[in-house]
Amino acid sequence: MKYALHCFAQSGNAYKAALMLELCAADWEPVFVDFFDGGTKTPEYLALNELGEVPLLEAGELRLSQSGVILDYLAETLGRFGPENAEERREILRWLLFDNHKLTGSVSTLRFRRTFSEHGEDEVSAFLETRAKGALGVLDRRLTGREFVLGERPTIADLSLCGYLYFTDEIGIDPRDWPSIRAWLERIAALPGWRHPYDLMPGHPRPDTP
Amino acid sequence: MKYALHCFAQSGNAYKAALMLELCAADWEPVFVDFFDGGTKTPEYLALNELGEVPLLEAGELRLSQSGVILDYLAETLGRFGPENAEERREILRWLLFDNHKLTGSVSTLRFRRTFSEHGEDEVSAFLETRAKGALGVLDRRLTGREFVLGERPTIADLSLCGYLYFTDEIGIDPRDWPSIRAWLERIAALPGWRHPYDLMPGHPRPDTP
After folding, report:
1. pLDDT one-digit tens code per residue, A37-79
2. Which residues of B touch A163 (CB under 8 A)?
3. B4-10 average pLDDT score
C-alpha cells in the first residue's frame, strides 16, 4: 500500500500521522497543503475533507481525516503501536481524546498565536497558556514512573500527544520544563526512524516568507 | 449490570454519558461530584480519575473516564448507537474527536466563562465565540440533508456532539440559529427516554447558590 498524506510542515496534527508512517517505514508521500494561503478552506479541499483541516490520508480508495482516526487505522493495518487488548484500546482512546481536547487543543492554538499570527500577548494567550500548563501537568504526572503513556511500550497515544511538543521554541512555554515529559520526548526521538516535523513534511519555512 | 456515573448537572460532558445510559434504559445512578467546590481536584477524586474531570463511569470492576471512551464502551456492551462496520466505526471516531477538539472544546469553555465565572466579556470570550461558530458551521453543513451525523440512524457521535447544545441560553450564542442543528436537536430530543441535562443529573442549580 502506498499512502499519500495531505500536510504541511508546521502542522503538529499532520506530524502525528507522518511520524507514524515514518516509524513504520511505510511507503508514503506528502501532498503539500498551503494552509497559510487558505489551502484548507478551498472548495476543492473541503470536498476532500469537510472539516477543513490537515491531515488527510489517502490509502487506496479510503480517505481518512482526524489524526486520531488515521493513527487508529494505521496501527491496525501496519500492525504497530496499536492496542493488544480491549483495555489498552480504551486507554489509548482516552489519551487520544485528552490530547485533542486538552493538550493539542491549547498548545497548538497558543503556538499559532505566538509564532504564526499578528496577535502578540493578550488575554487570549494568557488564557491558553494556563490551559496548556494544566494539560502538560496531567501528562507529566502520567509519565512519571512510566516509559510511555501506556507503560513500557510506545503506542499511537504517545505519537498523538507529542505532536506539537517538538516545536519547543515556538510555543512560548517549553514542554521540556516538565521533567517526565522531557525524558519521554527524548525516548520517542530515539525510536528508529524518528524525525522532526520540519524534516518530515514540506512547507517550512512559512511559504509566504522570502 | 448496574452503572454509577460520577457527574454534576451542569456538565455537558457528563450529560453525553448520562443521556446514553437513559436512552438505553440502563440501570444507573448518578454520583454527585461537587465541581464548583473543587470536587474534581481532590486527592480522592484524582485517585479515581487522574484527568480531574467528570464523567467517570463505574461498571463492575471497570472505571472509565473521557466521555468518548464511555460512549464507545456502552455502545458495545448495551448494543445500541454503535457502529455497524469498520467504516462507521472510523466515522464515529472522527466526529467524537472533532467534538472534543473543536466543538465542545470551544462551546463548553465559552459557556463556562459567560455563565459560571466572573469573567464577563473580554478578548477570550470573543476568541472562543469565533471558534464555537466555526465548529457549529462545520456541524450544520454536515447535518444538512442528513437526519443524524452518520445518516438515518442516531449514534454515539450525535450523543457526544449535542452534549452542550441543550444549554441554549447559557452559551451566549444559540445553536438553534443554525437551522440543520436546530432540526437535529429536536430529533434527538424526540428519542424515547430523552431528558434535558438538568433533569438527568444532580446539582442544579449551582450548589453554592441559595
Report:
1. 999 999 999 999 999 999 999 999 999 999 999 999 999 999 9
2. none
3. 97
Helix axes B179-189, B123-143, angle to 10 degrees: 70
Contact A94 B65 (CB under 8 A): yes
Query: Under an 8 A CB cutoff, do A101 and B105 touch?
Result: yes
- Is residue B192 within 8 A of residue B154, CB to CB? The reply is no
| Residue A121, C-alpha cell as written in the block | 500577548
Query: In the A/B pair of chains, how many CB contacts fall below 8 A?
Result: 75
pLDDT tens figures, B176-188: 999 999 999 999 9
In this predicted complex, what is the ipTM?
Answer: 0.94
Domains of chain A: 2-81+195-199 (3.40.30.10), 86-189 (1.20.1050.10)
CB contact under 8 A, B90 and A98: no
Which residues have C-beta within 8 Å of that of residue B15, sequence separation ≥ 6? B7, B163, B164, B166, B197, B200, B201
Closest CA to B155 of B24, B6, B54, B1: B24
At B29 the three-state DSSP class reads strand
The DSSP result for chain A, as a single string, is -EEEEEE-TT-HHHHHHHHHHHHTT-EEEEEE--GGGTTTSSHHHHHH-TT--S-EEEETTEEEESHHHHHHHHHHHH-SS--SSHHHHHHHHHHHHHIIIIIHHHHHHHHIIIIISS--SSHHHHHHHHHHHHHHHHHHHHHTT-SBTTBSS--HHHHHHTTTTT-TTTSSS-GGGSHHHHHHHHHHHTSTT---GGGTSS--S-TT--
Residue B62 has φ and ψ, to the nearest 5°, of -80, 140
Give which of B123, B81, B145, B104 is closest to B15, Cα–Cα. Answer: B104
Inter-chain CB proximity B94 and A66 less than 8 Å: yes
CB of B119 within 8 Å of a chain A CB? The answer is no
pLDDT single digits (tens) B142-189: 999 999 999 999 999 999 999 999 999 999 999 999 999 999 999 999
Residue of chain A with shortest Cα separation from B122: A123
Chain B residues with CB-CB distance to A142 below 8 A = 50
Q: How confident is the model at residue A104 (pLDDT cuts 50, 70, 90)?
A: very high
